[in-house]
Amino acid sequence: MSAAETSARVSAAGLRAQERAAKKAERERQRRIERDEAAERRRAAKAGFANVNNPRRSMLMTVLCAVFAVYCLFPFVYLLINATKTQADFTSTFGLGFGKSFALWDNIVTVFTYQEGIFGRWLINTLLYVVVGAGGATLLAIMGGYALAKFRFPGRKAVFAVIIGSISVPGIALAVPQFLLFAKLGLTNTPWAMIIPSLISPFGLYLMWIFSEQAVPTELLEAARVDGASEWRTFWTISMPLLAPGIVTTALFTIVATWNNYFLPLIMLKDSNWYPLTIGLNQWKDQASTAGGQAIQNLVITGSLITIIPLVIAFLMLQKYWQSGLAAGAVKE
């Protein structure tokens, strides 16, 4: 055997030995990783919720969440089922069981045609109150909260005290004084009796104040001022995009509050042509208790289902902004 062949065989044996050593080292590394992961899982199981990356599974919490979910979804399921019934089936069948006939489409058509289509008028009124009232409240809250957060002026602390005091006063306590004031001004039984009170949202103002403090860096505003941008342009082009999560959060709160408002229109409005959906559906519900009144619970249920659909759509579409808005400022950087 020549020296070249011997050298080649030695080199091949050396390579095979290196490959075996590398594979052995890799197997050892994988075993170490598995041991470390097992130890981490055991430590996480002992730590429980102290480790946010490995929370302990709790059967009790799962059951409580399931019960809470059922509690929240039960009214919606009840509406879905009973909106498919005729009036006869509604009074003669089990509440969570379907009727003898599926009348959902007939109920929807009847809702929009009953009493010369007054439900459509109530829906338009509600949209008007929400768009003008809740939209105006959101805009005023944005501008007021931003000004309080980024500008220093005399009386700022007094404004803060007034806002906190306004939040602590329930809206129902102000309904009667508002009615007396609007009666003096001759605005009762008009859309302004619903729109003007809806323009004020102390909680929305406070929320935008706190959010603006964290979301809009003062250094960014100073840079814009150095570049010659006016305060108005700085607010609309720089601050507004940064305030988007807070704006959506405030808008959701004001929209829901205006959409579900019941007591204010109850005392302010007498003309059914200006009723929102809440008062109109309640009038339909009470119709059976009046002399010669016709029971139309199936229409009330169907109308209620139609009423909540816009709110469900709004929450599903804006959910990510709503969650980020609530979480903003929760982590210190």
TrEMBL record:
Compositional bias, Basic and acidic residues, is annotated for 17-38
Source species, domain of life: Bacteria
Please give the SUPFAM superfamilies that the UniProt record associates with this protein.
MetI-like (SSF161098)
Q: Where is this region: Disordered?
A: 1-38
Pfam families in the record: BPD_transp_1
Membrane topology, as annotated: Multi-pass membrane protein
GO cellular component annotations of the record: plasma membrane
Matches recorded under Gene3D superfamilies: MetI-like
The transmembrane residues are 59-81, 126-146, 158-180, 192-211, 242-264, 295-318
Key words of the record: Cell membrane, Membrane, Transmembrane, Transmembrane helix, Transport
Q: Subcellular localization, per the record?
A: Cell membrane
InterPro entries registered for this protein in UniProt = MetI-like, MetI-like_sf
Q: Where is the ABC transmembrane type-1 domain?
A: 123-317
User: Is Transmembrane helix among the key words of this record?
Assistant: yes
Which family would the database say this protein is a member of? Belongs to the binding-protein-dependent transport system permease family.
The name this protein carries in UniProt is: ABC transporter, permease protein
In its UniProt entry, the species of origin is given as: Bifidobacterium reuteri DSM 23975
